[in-house]
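Reviewers of the previous submission asked for a worked example of the structure-prediction workflow described in the proposal, so we include one complete record here. The input consisted solely of the amino acid sequence. No template or homolog information was supplied to the procedure at any stage.
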Amino acid sequence: MRFEVTILGSNSAIPAHGRFPTSQILNASERLYLIDCGEGVQWRLQDCDIKKSKINQIFISHLHGDHIYGLIGLLNSMSLSKRTSPITIFSPKGLEEIIQVQLKYAGTVFSFPLTFYELETNKNQLIFEDEVLNAYTIPLRHRIPTCGFLFIEKPRPLNIDPDKIEKFNIPVEKIIEIKNGADFITQNGKLIANAALTFPPVSPRSYAFCSDTAYDTSIISIVEGVNLLYHESTFLHELQDLAKETMHSTTIEAATIAKKAKVGQLILGHYSSRYQDLSPLLEEAQKVFSNTVLGVEGKTISVEEKRRKIQDS
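From that input alone, the workflow returned the following C-alpha cells.
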C-alpha cells in the first residue's frame, strides 16, 4: 500500500523559475489528502496525473496567499465537474469567510457540501481520522496563526500464517479474533499462543508537514521519529537574520530539526525566488542531515512498508 508525498508547488510567495507556491498531495493507501493550495495547483494536479475528484480533505496551514490562492479555483472546478461528494477543509480562522465572500459576489453555489473545520493553531491535537490515518496539528511560529500537520497511519492487524490455519484447522470465524491478538484453542483443548499463529504487521508510517515557521525546537517532541519530515527552508543560512525577521527558516535550521528529531528523511521546500539553482540549499542541509532531498514540482517521495520486529508485535 502506498504512503507517499507528491510535491505540487515548492516556491515561496510567488511563482518563479518554473516553481509554483506551496501545495502537496499525501497518498495514503489510495486516499488523497491535499496540503496547502497555492496558485497553480490545478495545473500541477494535471501534470502529475492526480485526479482532483479523489480529494476529500484539504489541510491549510495558514492564510497567506501563497498557500490559499489556488483554493477557490480548485473548488470551482470541482463544482463545474458536477461533484456531489463533500469536501472538508481544515484551516485557521478566516478561510470560510474568504471563500464565502468570493462565492457571494460571483453568484456561485457549489454542487457539493463544503465544511470548514476551524483549527486552534497553538495546540497539538487530533483534528481528523478515517480508516487509514489520524491527522494532528503542529503549532508553528509565523507572522499569522499557522500550524503544520502530522499524519500517522493507523496500526494494522496482525497477519495470520496461512500454514497455521490448515495445521490447526482454524475456522474462518476465529481468524479475525486471532488477527486482533487472541490465542486459539484447538478441538482437543490445546492452547496455541497468538505469537505462534501470526506475523507482526507492518509499522505505521508517518509524515510531518511543517509549513512557514521560524526555527522552533519545541516541535521536535511532536515530529520525533517520523518517516518523512517536510520543513520549510526558505533561505541559505547566510540569510539567518532575514529568516528570523520574516519568521522563516534556513536550510541549516530545517536540517537541525530533522537531526534532533531523528526523522527518517527530510524534504526541503518553500524556496525564496532569489534562488534559481537549488543545489546550494540541498548541499548545505546535507552537511547537517545527510538524508535530505529537495522538494521540487512533480517529485514523489515514498515510504516503504517495513514489518515490525517480533518484540514489537
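The first helix runs from residue 41 to 47. We consider this example representative of the routine output the project will generate in years two and three.
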